[in-house]
């Protein structure tokens, strides 16, 4: 696709036609007109808006000319390093769609990326690093996502997960990139916008105290108290 319009004057016909072609491109590929990353110089794909607001931003703020491969808008990612992972990727998904698929989230759950743009850039770099020298099946990020998925599914504590990461590091060849602690893993996920929120749950696993149950003091299913009783 011709991207020369990105370097044209915003008042020119070429820029106008280019903006409309770009808008049509990602709507056709992402099949949505809402919750789309804005590629203007101020948002730099960190904020989500509808098509109309993105159009305004592209005229008022100008498009980010460094955004040459439209991976966030349906264009297949092209590797920029020799390191690669031997995982099939669907062209209709963004570069890190496997993250959302592994932890059972959709693209809209990502929200804004972490507040620190440099942290996000480091995470993107992690996506290109093989898990260990010569590994073609997993990168540091894809392996971490799979391990974290196991933690979530089986209720593994943070301490246990840290020990698992350390053990994995010992099993893998020297030069591996697996994080050595839950703290390091959390920094990676938070930079991607995958932070978590703690919620009260019924001791019998009936409900989470959220939404309509946010202010409840007893479980509506089993009747057990939300709170532990003190000595008094």
Structure report:
With 232 residues, the protein is mostly helical. Helices cover 35% and strands 2% of the residues. It contains seven helices and two strands, in the order H-E-E-H-H-H-H-H-H. It has helices spanning 13-30, 51-60, 97-102, 117-126, 140-153, 158-171, 182-191, and strands at 36-37, 48-49. It has a two-stranded antiparallel sheet with strand order 1-2.
Biggest sheet strand order reads 1-2
Main sheet summary: 2 strands, antiparallel
Proportion of residues in β-strands: under 5%
Helix content: 25-40%
End-to-end distance: 71 Å
How many H/I helical runs? Answer: 7
**Count of extended strands:** 2
Taking pLDDT < 50 over at least 5 consecutive residues as the criterion, the unreliable ranges are: 79-96, 103-116
Secondary-structure element string: HEEHHHHHH
| Structural class category | mainly alpha
What is the fold's blueprint, element by element?
Elements: H1 13-30, E1 36-37, E2 48-49, H2 51-60, H3 97-102, H4 117-126, H5 140-153, H6 158-171, H7 182-191
Antiparallel strand pairs: 1-2
Short description, anyone?
The protein is mostly helical.
Task: Pick out its properties.
single chain; mainly alpha; two-stranded antiparallel sheet; 7 helices; flat
